[in-house]
């Protein structure tokens, strides 16, 4: 973290191993492949583009990087119809109107001076992209552009200037460029293909579901109060669910949520009835819940137990 006394930004990691350590300090259990591309992104100042299924930890790595580096996290949550006014800037029209009325009441007829005042920093509302380009005492922030695939192609064009030159252009003020580029993380659930022009400006990585041991390590880090037996059963059961023909398989986020629910119920091990009662924490569609409930629950639990017995 940045020191509160010196107010200097934390040093960038000097190696891949150090990147893994810094993320682990934030309870983010990272594979070497993801740590490598994260290290290169930080070292080269290149945006990091992460694709993968929902719930595999794409958003969390931006939060972990912000915590590890002692930087502010600025998040732009994307959605259909997102435009420049919502993402970059807009003018505070209400405050501008008050300033106009005040000038009129005071008899100020200098229109040029009034116009200059109205379109100044005082009336500028900074949205996430513009805010990320501003200087910050703790160092350049981490800019998370989350679920970029939810936007449309015209908005991607807005991002090209930001990711190429780390600047935005405001017609009334001209180009505004970051003195130091922010750390940029873009995520996509791949509901549509993102344009190549945007991807070319980034380092790309596909974030897959973790293997058993790493997911178990994640669960231990995030829900340490869960028993060893319960944590292992949860991971084995969830990984079995991912092999089923479901509308939406559970991600790591669902594993963590389910573990927290089971701990809240004082569970120390899984049982068919307990799984049935809490399936809504791990599956989010009624058709999937109906398919797994009943005999399928018992079968999957038996398979999970057999896998754990074989591993031990």
Spell out the key features of this protein.
Rossmann fold, disordered N terminus, elongated, 9 strands, alpha/beta, 312 residues, two-stranded antiparallel ribbon
Outline the secondary-structure elements.
Elements: H1 16-25, H2 32-44, E1 48-52, H3 58-69, E2 73-77, H4 84-87, E3 89-91, H5 93-105, H6 111-118, E4 124-126, H7 128-132, E5 142-146, H8 153-165, E6 167-170, E7 174-177, E8 183-188, H9 196-199, E9 203-207, H10 212-222, H11 228-241, H12 252-264, H13 272-278, H14 286-292, H15 295-311
Parallel strand pairs: 1-8, 1-9, 2-5, 5-8
Antiparallel strand pairs: 3-4, 6-7
Helix-strand string: HHEHEHEHHEHEHEEEHEHHHHHH
Helical residues, percent: 40-55%
> Strand percentage, roughly?
5-15%
What is the name of the CATH topology of the largest domain? Rossmann fold
The helix/strand class is alpha/beta
- Extended strand count: 9
Shape: elongated
Largest sheet: 5 strands, parallel
User: Strand order, biggest sheet?
Assistant: 2-5-8-1-9
Give the N-terminus to C-terminus distance in angstroms. 39 Å
Radius of gyration: 24 Å
- The CATH C-level class name of the largest domain: Alpha Beta
Average pLDDT score: 91
**CATH superfamily placement of the largest domain:** P-loop containing nucleotide triphosphate hydrolases
CATH architecture label name of the largest domain: 3-Layer(aba) Sandwich
